[in-house]
Structure formats: structure tokens, C-alpha cells
Prior knowledge:
alpha/beta, Alkaline Phosphatase, subunit A, 9-stranded mixed beta sheet, globular, TAT_signal
Amino acid sequence: MNNRPHIEVPTSRREFLAKSGGGFGALALAALMGEKAQADTAATDDVDPRAPKVTHFPAKAKNVIFLFMEGGPSHIDLFDPKPLLNKLAGKKLPESFGKVILAMGENDAPLMECPRVWKQHGESGLWVSEWFNEIATCADDLCVIRSCVSDGINHSSGVCQMNTGHVIGGRPSLGAWATYGLGTENQDMPAFVVLTDSNRQVVNGPRNWGSGFMPAAYQGVQFKPGADPILNLNPPSHITPDRQKAKLDLLSQIDHRHSEMRNDDSDLEARIKSYELAFRMQSAAPEIVDLSTETEETKQLYGIDQKETNVFGSNCLMARRLVENGVRFVQLYSGAGSGWDAHSNIEGNHGKLCKAVDKPIAGLLKDLKRRGLWDDTLVIWGGEFGRTPMSEQGNGRDHNPTGFTMWMAGGGVPGGRTIGSTDELGLRAVENEMHVHDLHASILRILGIDHTKLIYRHKGRPERIDMNEGKAEMKLLGLA
């Protein structure tokens, strides 16, 4: 009979091996799977895995705000002017540009003009179209990378690679790697926060900010748009702090007792930590996420007083407040659910979305400066890919992962300059190509991390953010 009280029945094969034959079965299993108990990867250490860590290099920035335009913004309509495109508009792509593989397969579509008004801005003379007139006022702060390249031809693979380094899901996100490598300065708030501009599902969902094969403690926490970004933050009125703490203490005792024989379960450990963090957040978070304490002038700076810019402006202001309070990595999604995907009517699509983000982003850059956060905060702008010079459905553009634009600002990145270039039509990167792996390596380098040394051992394999293929761009550090 197995129901006698002194008989403990193993609940899994792993537990059976750990308890059988003095644990030699577990040793054999560990050898076969290449598992290794290491202090830097164990999720059950007494030390909080999110505790601040020492960097490999002196860090230029310590926080990141990633402005993600989901769906693929058109670089040739925003930051990469191509006069030849308008001259050849209506004609087929010249044979000299070679064969092109398109996501939607509309082959032999004619080139489509870019009706934007382009101007050079700032002392640097940086080119920006009239769709981003507010961001253009910060031209001397932007380092525009015109030669970005990815492998994802559709949204799922493109968004996945830009967030995790691989076109197939399951790997840790960039925010998770940053948290793993740096920890966080505020133990009462999540280290990695995600903000979206609507209740629509981002392509791939939470996998974009997940921790993959790393402990769940490093995954991102999604805040909701609106007045109450953190659900269930405040306890019911009849639950006193002492009563709630007593309940959590009892739950913690039960969970820790359960986890003692399951020390390989990082999800369980992360759940325990999340309860503890949630309790601390009830004291710290309400003040941090309360935008009503900001001045009217600040709200206007972000466009919160205007209908078109209210949502993204609120998210940008929230991002500033989060990094100001020690949150390590904040990612903002514009166009959640591939909103920037302009296969048709790019004028209406991009016109509306640019209006929604232009003033908020400019406000964020200016506010970071005046609050003394500029040098410590790296701001990144971009999407999963760009768009083609050829038309689609007559008035739209298809996906273009072979050459597109991103920019960085703050965090010690020299502004008022461009890095790399695409060909004369904006189809492919031709100078100083920067693959997603290079972008990730560069971002970590700005944070003081050597991406080749930031290793997590998974099944005996030393895993890195760049899949062992990237290199940091020294121009972003002002070293070239």
C-alpha cells in the first residue's frame, strides 16, 4: 500500500532519481543532460537573482527604454531619404538590384514614390521627414543606424528575433539578458517592465519578454495601458497589511517546504519571489505609477493633454518614472498587434501612428535631459524590419528585413550622426551592415556588459544573447 503516512511517493521521475539509491540516479541524469550547479545560474540561491551585479566594463548607461514600433515602420519614409525612388516611381525595380523575396509575394510590383517633405535638422543636418517634426527637434541627440538587417521576413519571426535574437521562440528576451547580467537597483519593483498602447495582443505575446531557458525571475512584467497599469495592486479594503503579510508568510512557508525537494523548478522559485515582490510593490508602486503627481507642463510635453498622443504619451512618461525609480529595462510597444504593418494605405497608417508617437517620444528625450537621466538611460527606437521601395496593393509597402533604420539616443551614445547606409532605393544595407545580433551585442556593451562573457549554461551549452554571431559596434560608443 502506498497510502501509508510515512511513505512519500515521488511526484516526478527527476524526484524519483534524486531519492533512489542515495541520489546516484540524479547524478547520472545530471551527467547525461549536462546540467551544472553553478552560483551564477542557480535559481534557488539564497541571493536574489535580481541583485545588482558588477559590469565587465564601465557602463555608459544603466537603464534602457526600448520604443518598439511593432509591424515595421518605413525607413524610407522617416529617416532614410531616397531621391532616386521618386525619379523611378512607377517603374519596375532595376535588374541590377537582383532578385527580391517578399513576404506577401507580390512580385514585379512597381516602385512607389515617397511623398514626404524632407529637411535637415540641428547642427548635424540629420535628415528627418515631416512625419516626425517633433523628434526632428532632437536631431542632434540621435544616432541613426540606417543599415540594420534581420532574418525574419514575417512578423512572428521578425519580432521574435528583435526581442530574443532568434526567429524561433523559446530563448530569453533582451530585457531578460540585461536583467540577468545587471540585476536591478529597486528590489520593490520589477526589473523589466513592458507597456503596450492597447489591449491588442503583441505578436508572439509574452514570449517577447520571457526568460526562455533562464530562471523565470528574469522575465518581463506587463503593465496595462490606462489609469490602473498594475492589476490587483491594491488589496481589498477589509484586508489589513498585517493580515495580508501573515497570509503571505504562511504561503511562503508552504511553498518553500514544497520547493526543498524540487530545487530544479525555477518557475516555482519565481512564483515565490513574485508573491514577495507583489507585496513590496503595494507600498512602492502606487506612487511610481501615479501620473497625476506630474505637473501640467510635463503632461503637455508628452502630449497627454491631446487625444491622439494621450496613450503613448502616458506610456513614455511612465517609462521615465520607472527608470527614475530603478527599473532596469522598459519596453514600449506602439501599434500592438502589427499596427505599423502598412501593406496598403501607408499614408493613412503611418500618418496616424506617427502622430501618436512623435510628440511623446520627443517629450521623453527632452524630459530625460532636464531630469538628469540622459546619461544613464539608453533610448532605442525601431521595429522588427523596414518596408520595401516597391508598392503593394498600389499604395502600401511590403516587409523589408534586408535594410532598415533604427536609432539610439542618450546613454553615452554620440548624437547627430548616422551609421551605415542602404542602397539608392533603400532595399538593402550596403555599408556597415548591423545585424540584430550586432545590435544586441552593442546594447549590452553600452550597459557595460561583454556579450561574449554573459553566459548562461543550458543543457551543457554556453548560451549567449547573440547566438555567438554578433559584435558590438564601437561607433555607438564613440570609440570609432
